[in-house]
Design goal:
Length: 220
């Protein structure tokens, strides 16, 4: 049994999760604590991946990231190669599709923080940036961990967006979900079973970790 698609999925999910946490943590901080006009429109745009069918979202990304798209042309001009049908391309697609799975949990976590913590930090002379690193992040670790777990799990099961942007190139874009689909199409049920059971075990461990974190956080 070739587990290369599963390893590729784990690699994709790991890179996507780390990248989204680095982007999502400060972005959620801005959305929660900084007054700005049109915030509701920004929230709605960031939440679109939750309601759009993955193939529709993937189609829009394909147009944007393809050779004729703005992002695709810029990428080819800078690096001399296309963005779609590459591992880098599916990382970008997975991050764009997974951003609400980081933003929404982090916004909820930040909103529940005791405002007196930030008031005390301001009285002590902490800047907004210092408050983010010294107050917000240390007191939001369970929420950050939950966001990471949700994002990782979502990316592990990603199919439609990855197929639209990456196709099915072995060792490059052929992740586990696509490999299972192709095994079933070819009636290779034994390989489909093996890969599906491996994903089932990983998914269960992810959910178990998530529930254990929640139990620890709420003391139940």
């Amino acid at each position: 049994m070739d587990y290369a698609p599963l390893i590729l999925s784990l690699k994709l999910a790991s890179i996507t999760t780390v990248g989204l946490l680095l982007i999502g943590a400060p972005l959620a901080y801005l959305l929660v604590f900084f007054p700005m006009r049109g915030k509701i429109f920004i929230d709605s745009i960031l939440g679109l991946p939750l309601v759009l069918p993955p193939t529709v979202f993937g189609f829009f990304l394909l147009i944007l990231m393809g050779s004729e798209g703005v992002v695709g042309r810029l990428h080819e001009a800078a690096l001399g190669r296309p963005l779609i049908f590459t591992f880098g391309g599916i990382v970008v697609a997975a991050m764009l599709h997974g951003i609400p799975y980081v933003i929404q949990p982090l916004k909820s976590t930040y909103a529940k923080l005791d405002p007196r913590l930030l008031e005390s930090a301001a009285v002590l002379g902490c800047s907004k940036t210092a408050s983010f690193f010294r107050v917000i992040l240390p007191n939001s670790l369970p929420g950050i961990a939950g966001a990471a777990i949700l994002t990782f799990a979502h990316t592990m099961g990603e199919f439609g967006v990855i197929l639209m942007i990456g196709g099915s190139i072995p060792g490059e874009t052929k992740v586990a979900s696509i490999a299972i689909y192709e095994f079933v199409e070819a009636m290779r049920y034994q390989e489909a079973w093996q890969l599906s059971l491996a994903l089932l075990a990983i998914s269960y461990l992810i959910l178990l970790t998530f529930h254990l974190l929640n139990r620890k956080q709420y003391g139940r």
